[in-house]
Design a protein that fits this description.
Elements (H helix, E strand, L loop, with lengths): L3 E3 H11 L4 E4 L6 H7 L6 E4 L3 H15 L3 E5 L3 H4 L2 H10 L3 E7 L15 H5 L5 E4 L3 H16 L6 E6 H5 L1 E3 L20 H17 L3 E5 L1 H6 L2 H11 L3 E3 L14 E3 L7 H9 L2 E5 L5 H4 L10 E6 L13 E4 L2 H11 L6 H10 L13 H12 L4 E4 L3 H9 L8 E3 L9 H11 L5 E6 H7 L2 H8 L3 E7 L4 H10 L14 H8 L3 E4 L2 H13 L4 E6 L9 E2 L8 E2 L5
Parallel strand pairs: 2-3, 2-4, 4-5, 5-7, 6-7, 9-10, 9-12, 10-11, 12-13, 13-14, 15-16, 15-17, 17-18, 18-20, 19-20
Antiparallel strand pairs: 1-8, 21-22
Helix pairs in contact: 1-2, 1-7, 3-5, 3-18, 9-14, 11-14, 16-17, 16-23
The structure holds thiamine diphosphate.
Thiamine diphosphate binds next to helix 17, helix 19 and helix 21.
């Protein structure tokens, strides 16, 4: 006799069979059958967050750090809508997240039932794929298909909305149904092999001929694990490497050929190199406006080769001479078969001559430079940093000496404040053996600081650093530069963070002097369990250099405009 399972049990079995071990979520009426099936389910660990946004960010952090699908769960209506920011974040940064949402029972659909929201409609633009499960017979395949789509091509979030009565319906569990056939096949256009060979040959030729070539690498290199191949390409051709915000840590910061981050807060010599380059090979990145500034003036002398797994990204923002659709690792491997060794010594010398000591955000005191170099000493570069959004995010990107692949995680595309604290929980679960630091500003930290309770309840050892400048710093900086210094609604009060830590039962420190920072960071790093360090920095410190929004990379601001 075949065993019949409820939809909720089928959901659990499907997740376990797909290799899911951890999920982040929050229960409620329409998802109760699933939570009931989860009760005592040894193979599935559920982390109860304090807000569904945190569940989505934590699943995203888990996905990015663990290179696997991260799962979040919410009830219908407000639970599901609270996931939206996290899904949009994962969508913009190409992170494979599966959201499972409860929905009102099928007979109630469309009747404005209690906690009914058309979540498939709401999340349509921020998911790669979403589906309302119509029948329990389709449930397992709907989940499998969604997970396959989340991973294929450019990864991204997917959502499966499960009506409550479907969770209660009974059916036979089939290990892999008809709908499972052929899953995982990329749906995007695969270029003709002949075209690909031509494009590879053309690119190799352009690299051989260029006098001022640059590699510009993004998160696609991290997703495809193309570290060794990209490094080999750079070393064999002597080509300097620029890492976008999301590409940071794809090559060691200190590598001889690594220049740093381009764009709005890129160092002056990096942006000047872009403006002087005659060839830019973009790999696994998308020429986002924070990278290009005004596209009309971006890299005016350069031919652009764009390699990306997402065909829609090619030619979207900049004109390309050669576009190659494909996985970064595979394409670079093919390039390595044909590129000729060279050194580019004159070009590298030219860039070196443009270099100046990095701009100080402010002199003396507890500066971001002092903090980040202390953190580098304390962690020996062996930690993952999850940064939030704002000035501190740029300081981390500019200053921390990332050595190992995929150790810098941040919300780049959406720029979602509140990301760091919950995402760091997911990172820690994916990397239980290494220190994980969440670095936030006093604004973003206050958005999701309730997750400290989750960390304590679940024993998640996340170290929290709060850069406290008493302002929504990045917005204040724009107000100072471009809005006549009118600080409209950017001064922000904080609680006493040391007392807050105490209230949650974790150690907390407040650091005001540069001389104290190393010792405190060392203690926090060594403390068992979560720990919080408040770093009181200069209130009006600015991030330099800066390209005026929509401005040209050729015109950096290196001091506040008068
Ligand atoms: C959810 C969200 N709301 C608003 C913004 C706009 N924003 C970008 S940076 C910033 C200020 C961040 O302040 P804080 O967290 O204190 O960090 P700081 O810039 O001071 O380092 C704001 C409000 C955003 N990116 N995300």
């Amino acid at each position: 006799m075949t065993e019949l399972l409820t939809g909720a049990q089928i959901l659990c079995r499907t997740l376990v069979d797909a290799g899911v071990e951890v999920m982040f979520g929050y229960p409620g009426g329409a998802i109760m059958p699933f939570y009931d099936a989860l009760h005592g389910h040894a193979a599935l660990r559920h982390i109860l967050v304090r807000h569904e946004q945190a569940a989505a960010h934590a699943a995203d952090g888990y996905a990015r750090a663990g290179n696997r699908v991260g799962v979040c769960v919410a009830t219908s209506g407000p639970g599901a809508t609270n996931l939206v920011t996290g899904l949009a974040t994962a969508y913009m940064d190409g992170s494979p997240v599966l959201a499972i949402t409860g929905q009102v029972g099928r007979p109630m659909l469309g009747r404005d039932a209690f906690q009914e929201t058309d979540v498939v409609g709401v999340t349509l633009p921020v998911t790669k794929h979403n589906v309302l499960v119509r029948d329990v017979e389709e449930l397992a395949d709907d989940v499998r298909e969604a997970m396959a789509i989340a991973k294929e091509g450019r990864p991204g979030p997917v959502l499966v909305d499960v009506p409550k009565d479907v969770q209660n319906q009974k059916a036979e569990y089939k290990v892999s149904g008809a709908g499972g056939q052929g899953l995982g096949k990329p749906r995007h256009l695969i270029p003709d092999t002949q075209d690909l060979e031509n494009a590879i040959q053309q690119t190799a030729h352009l690299i051989a001929e260029a006098e001022r070539p640059l590699l510009m690498i993004g998160r696609g290199v991290i997703v495809s694990g193309a570290y060794a191949e990209v490094r080999e390409l750079a070393e064999r051709t002597g080509t300097p490497v620029i890492t976008t915000l999301l590409g940071i840590s794809a090559i060691p910061q200190a590598h001889d050929l690594h220049l740093g981050m381009p764009g709005m807060h890129g160092e002056v010599h990096i942006n000047k190199a872009i403006q002087a380059a005659d060839l830019i090979v973009g790999i696994g990145m998308r020429f986002d406006d924070r990278v290009t500034g005004n596209t009309a003036t971006f890299a005016p002398r350069a031919k652009i080769v764009h390699i990306d797994v997402n065909p829609a990204a090619i030619g979207l923002n900049v004109r390309v001479a050669v576009g190659i659709v494909g996985d970064a690792r595979r394409v670079v491997e093919q390039l390595l078969d044909v590129v000729k060794p060279r050194e580019c010594l004159r070009w590298r010398e030219e860039i070196r001559a443009l270099m100046r000591p990095p701009a100080e955000s402010f002199a003396g005191g507890l500066s971001p430079e002092v903090i980040l170099s202390a953190l580098a000493d304390v962690t020996g570069g062996r930690c993952t940093i999850v940064s939030d959004v704002g000035q501190h995010q740029m300081w981390v990107a500019q200053r921390y000496p990332f050595q190992r692949p995929n150790t810098h995680i941040t919300s780049g595309g959406l720029g979602a404040m509140g990301f760091a604290v919950p995402a760091a929980m997911g990172v820690r679960l994916a990397r239980p053996d290494e220190p994980v630091w969440a670095i936030s500003g006093d604004g973003g930290f206050q958005m999701n600081m309730a997750e400290i309770a989750t960390m304590v309840q679940e024993g998640l050892e996340v170290k929290l650093a709060v850069f406290n400048n008493g302002y929504l710093g990045m917005v204040r900086q724009w107000q100072q530069f471009f809005h006549g210094g009118r600080y409209s609604n950017t001064p922000i009060l904080s609680p006493d963070y040391v007392k807050l830590a105490e209230a949650y039962g974790i150690p907390g420190w407040r650091v005001k002097q540069a001389g104290e920072v190393t010792d405190v960071l060392r203690q926090a790093n060594a403390a068992p369990g979560p720990a919080l360090v408040e770093l009181v920095i200069e209130q009006e410190a600015n991030v330099f250099p800066m390209i005026v929004p929509g401005g040209s990379l050729s015109e950096p601001l290196e001091a506040a405009p008068v």
